[in-house]
Amino acid sequence: MSDKRKEPRKNLMAFTPVYGLHPRILLGYVEDLTVQGAMVVGEKPVEVNKHITLAIEFPKDVHEFTTPRITVPARTTWCRQEKSPHYFDIGFEFTELKPDDEKIIKAILRRYEFRREIPAAEVE
Known about the structure:
The protein has 124 residues and is mainly beta. The protein has a domain at 7-47 and 62-77. Helices cover 15% and strands 37% of the residues. The protein is built from two helices and six strands; from the N terminus they run E-E-E-E-E-E-H-H. The protein has helices spanning 99-112, 120-123, and strands at 17-20, 25-33, 37-42, 51-57, 69-81, 88-94. It has a six-stranded antiparallel barrel with strand order 1-2-3-6-5-4. Strand 5 (69-81) and strand 6 form a beta hairpin.
């Protein structure tokens, strides 16, 4: 499988639930995040190429923004069983990310990711 990612993945150290909306259902928890999309680890598979509105609930203690939640339209790009038979890795591509939501994601990555810091030039 080729890796077409435009940005390196960022593993998050924060507990970040992801819900599908309409109906609201817990899909899993963010494992990796970029402004283009997210990998979520969940207990149930999600259909590939499914368009879904995600609600991502970030930690409430980030002072750079007033709301700890973003709602973003996304498409499932892949879904595969994790090494454990009880979990699935689910790849989502954000299809319409608002500028304010992009700022929130960048603030979250700056605060919680542990691979590298985002240079200030990429954040502004």
